Amino acid sequence: MFQELLGAIIAAGAVGLVYMSAGMRVVKQYERGVVLRLGRLRGEIRSPGLALIVPVVDRLYKVNMQIVTMPVPAQEGITRDNVTVRVDAVVYFKVVDAAAATINVEDYRFAVSQMAQTSLRSIIGKSDLDDLLSNREKLNQGLELMIDSPAIGWGVQIDRVEIKDVSLPDAMKRSMARQAEADRERRARIINADAELQASRKLAEAAQQMADTPSALQLRLLQTVMAVAAEKNSTLVLPIPVELLRFLERGQQPAALAESHQPDGTTGSHPADAGGELRQSEPQQSEPQPPVGTGDAQQSAAVDGTQQPTGIGDSAAPRS
Question: What pTM was estimated for this model as a whole?
């Protein structure tokens, strides 16, 4: 009798142990447990650790609370300025309410993915190409707001949305490259013209300074000669300023005038006077004279009855 009772106790204990082991669940640190008893949600959410449920009656659903990284497939659309682009993005989200993520939506991952794709298409249609390329931060905020609005009811919080890449047609890439090249060339020309303007202003100031101080021009000339001589050249070209020649010419003019006004009427050895003497010594061509013995001379010869010479050749003949 005692042995039968001991066997029954052992059997009951084994059954109870098996029953308890069937109701044991382990919830990890990054998970939360949602218990449904006979299809109805229990009020408490099971924390990480060992969770006991009633076998067959209760069902435990584990919900991951980690941040999920979900890539959004590339979506093709037409921008507001009629440019066809392909845009892909990535969404970072996490579950903040395990019960709502289990009860309110069938598959919160799939729901967030579809919402992200539709929101991305909407953003493409509302934006210009320049905004997609340069103003992505604003578009990311708008995309995050569009996805987060319905996701709040699913117990999901959108942490961040980023546009990854914007694919353009090859023709559009070539057009943008030409536009960028033309813009860079325009800026280069403007910078070059501005440099020329500044250089001309400095040169004008330097010229004005040299005009006020003539010795500065000579010093600049010597500095140029020194710079050329430093290169070990066999030939040295020495420029002579036109102003120096004019200065020397003005210095020689008073001496020439003084020599030309001497009392004895002699002239000096000035090149201009020598040139004048040369010009005076040149034979002057005489104009042809009319033949002698024409006109009144012939009439007087006829009255006297003597023959007068009529030309240069007749002047040598003796009178008859």
Answer: 0.55
